[in-house]
Protein 1
Amino acid sequence: MSTATIDPQSLQTSTPTTTVRVRTTKRHGPKWGPARIGALVVLIVLAVSWLLPILWAIDTSLKSETDAAAAQQSWIPAGGFTIDAYVKVLTQGQIPVWIWNSLFTSVVVTLVTVILSTLAAYAFSRLDFSGRKWLYAAIIGSIMVPPQVLIIPLFYEMLAMNLVDTYLGIILPQVIAPAMVFILKQFFDQIPVELEEAARVDGAGRLRVFFTIVLPLSRPILAAVAIFVFIGAWNNFLWPFLVTNQANLMTLPVGLQTVKSAFGIQYAQNMATAMLAAAPLIIVFLFFQRQIIKGIATTGFGGQ
Amino acid sequence: MASATAGPTPHAVSAGERDASRARGRTVKRRRDNRAGWAFVAPFVVFFVAFLVVPIVWGLYLSFTATSLTGAGNHLVGFANYFEAFGDADMWRSMGNTVWFTVLSTIPLVVVALAMALLVNTGLPGQWLWRLSFFMPYLLASTVVSQIFLWLFNPQLGLFNHLLTSIGLPPSNWLNDQDIAMYAVVGTTVWWTVGFNFLLYLAALQNIPESQYEAASLDGAGTWRKLWSITLPQLRGTTGLIVVLQILASLKVFDQIYQMTTGGPNGSTRPIVEYIFESGFTGYRFGYSSAISYIFFAMIVIISIAQFTAGRRGDAIARADRADARRRRAAVRAATKGQAA
């Protein structure tokens, strides 16, 4: 863990999360008393209820339309399982286009947000410039502004800039993340200044110090911030919904909303679409499970 | 997690101290990083001004005009929009729905998340499975969640009615029933977002030092005693944070309600954000819509300040409690020492 030496706080708070528990339970040895069995039963009931909607959606997506709409619903369809719904959705609909739009806009939003926020947070943490305090106060204060409040003037602005129905129109308003500036500044505040000062004495410029010393130390927090911003952008509905009218520019969540009415009663196709939309982030999660969990643990409100 | 929950105060203090020391140094050194500092923040500031400050100011201006989508009616009308909004029954109804949704959703989103975290934290086998089951829904886009639950709530073919009738209960109309739709939406929301709070709680639980439990065990404390005397008090900070975040998130609800009920039936689920959206984008009354936005914004600010004040009072009480305990311990020590002598 490269963080360990730099960031004692995160070492304390997050690193042991996954391991400590396991060890302690092993030491005590599982005692299967009534309380423990009761806890397990409740946990199983909860987990089953939480998995049920997704399992049912997957099940439906693998049925033929006739079986999906059969009066007598069952987990195993009378006509057997089929991937027809997926084939139809992928070949006839615009799902591939929407996946691409979502991927493209989310990646750009993530990159730009991380770059802008990191630079700003570093300046607020380390550089002494006039207006620093009030500027930081204004940015922190703006965390309180709900984006929903700004939809009318933002849309107006996009009209004025001719950005309605463009990628830029989707991306630009999403790159401002004051909460991320706050999180990153907190992190930079904990890095010992001595490292940078030593490099400065050796004649390295501000940018050089930033890129060669600060950024490498910040990799874990940058990953956490990037993952959050990406999830937020990938799932964002309201803004892309307002700013796109053309089907070929829609992001996945927006496209799904329009398809819902278009497919009407084609339940299997409906669920196949939903599952295709869900898959990318679930795959991301399976790969980055530890980072995501740790990110939530260390950055707290980042996700909201 | 402790860094984020208990964090804000110590961090703020240390940052404040640093600021103070810098301010002192400044009189001698002047502001040495002016150019570098502004160069680093400039890119952020440009976007910040363009897409946050300008809309905030423009929206405020619009709220005092009769502007429509076409730009017509772009003249000042004073407080007319605000007066109209305060007399608008639909506005009050959506505001009421929003508050009701917030109350209904926040309670289970805190309590269920805590229960899940406590259960998972007992160290039962299958850790990754529990985490995956509870957290995965949080990763789904609102549209995906809405699609799945529209299908589950389907009155004729949905799984929920199927389950109800199979145990002999009458089927429900769910989202089409004015008295039930809000609860159905709340249930969907709990399923969707509880995983985030669950993870916050889980992280906080795993930060409680094991030594405290061991000490309590030596003193003969049972599972429940440990839960009440160690675990729950230690989670107070996290709970405060989760409640604050949850209330603010719930007040901003729009996506899933719009997608599942479009605010219906009969406006019984329409939240304030949907009313802002509708008066702006279907009614084309940008001025009026902006005024409602600002009323909503004011509400958020007031609630945030109230929570902040309540949080500070809570901290003060906790501090007093700790001081009390210290005094008691000191008294006990003194007494035992006296006995020994």
Note: The mean pLDDT of chain B is 83.
Protein 2
Amino acid sequence: MRRAISRMAHEIVEQNENLGDLVLTGLQTRGVFLARRLAGQIHESTGREIPTGALDVSMHRDDLHLRKVPPAVKSTDLPVGLDDKTVVVVDDVFFTGRTVRAAMDALSDFGRPRRLQLAVLIDRGHRELPIRPDYVGKNVPTSRQEHIRVQIKEEDGVDEVTLDKREA
Amino acid sequence: MNWTRRHLLGIEELSAEEITLVLDTAASFKEVSTRAIKKVPALRGRTVVNLFLEPSTRTRISFELAAKRLSADTLNITAQASSITKGETLKDTARNIEAMNADFVVLRHSAAGSPRFLADRLNAGIINAGDGAHEHPTQALLDVFTIREKLGRVAGLNVLILGDILFSRVARSNIWALTKLGATVTLCGPTTLVPDGFRKMGVKVTHHLDDALRDADVINLLRIQHERQRRSLFPSIGEYASLFGLNEERFRRTRPDVLIMHPGPINRGVEISSEVADSARSVILEQVTNGLAVRMAVLFLLNGAQPRNPSGEGTPTGGES
């Protein structure tokens, strides 16, 4: 996982010559920690501090009516205004694309970024919307019946990605 | 902790965990009101009917704004402007509202238990916005939210509720919420308005204001509810103010970090002096701000627990995008 994050950090630096306009936005919960790690890597290699925030998209989800219980709403805390910034959305697992769609909606309430990019640790396929990632830690082809679980040391005590078969 | 309730009828029926879940959710919703665009689509397509059959400014506006910030459509029905004045019963009014496919009814009514009455008869989610002298759950939730936000905790605090307890739904809901979260609650006021029977709710009752003031971390002041008194329970407003009003002289003898709260509307010069109401220790207006966040959280949680769309047996893939 460390290598994947390090490589993604380098790609982000390569793709964005003006690091002064960059903002990393992690999606609650594990994307927030991944965003902070990416920012740490970028700081290590360039000496630049990249503003890093947290975004909770529960209020913007399109599946609220399909759930039996409401999702836990966590905090949203963006450190700077997003107008004219390059905002990199960071999440752990990229699946249907619906969370990212919700994130794009949510971010537009905070301003008008010049550019939005997407960084994901795991891309497991099965997109339901025309959204593609700009930075991918690892492509993991899966079936829909499988379940990808990402654990992050800051939240789960361990860095680990597991793939479980589960009943459909 | 999962939220499974369709209605919010009172605090008495909630567990400490459920109360805490509302407070945590409200903390997240408070941020929405600081955004450039103060609106999220969580309740898009839902209809919230504010059925207010008793006067209210703050609570009705707060619910209306909360619903609008969640992108719901809102309707306001007040007693004066509705067919209630033509003799329609509560049940018939509500059934007509439901026939318009309302998803939530926010009810303010002078009769205790009226929200339960509707919840048993309608498909819509019911939110109690104050029923007689029974409960006012969202007020209690915003009060404990404000206490937790300002003092960092609720458990272990001494909370003094001062004034007209007998007729106060705010007091009852606050007592439930505070005791469930582990605070020590003391009630104080004239004997006619603070009967000893309240001890059964697990609170202290005193008629000696000076002792109670000294120990309080939080003082929640309640208005005298003239509208609920059929006969006079104390000699005069002037006497009440002099014996139980929080004036500057008494305020000086409270803890320096005391929190002064009031659900509004305040009667300056009666239960609270202007100096105290406008002091740095007063969080009366912050209570109003927090009330909006708490009501957004309540609507969001109740909406998430409404049964609908049976075909849509969901696949909430937690953690996955």
Note: The first helix of chain B runs from residue 16 to 30.
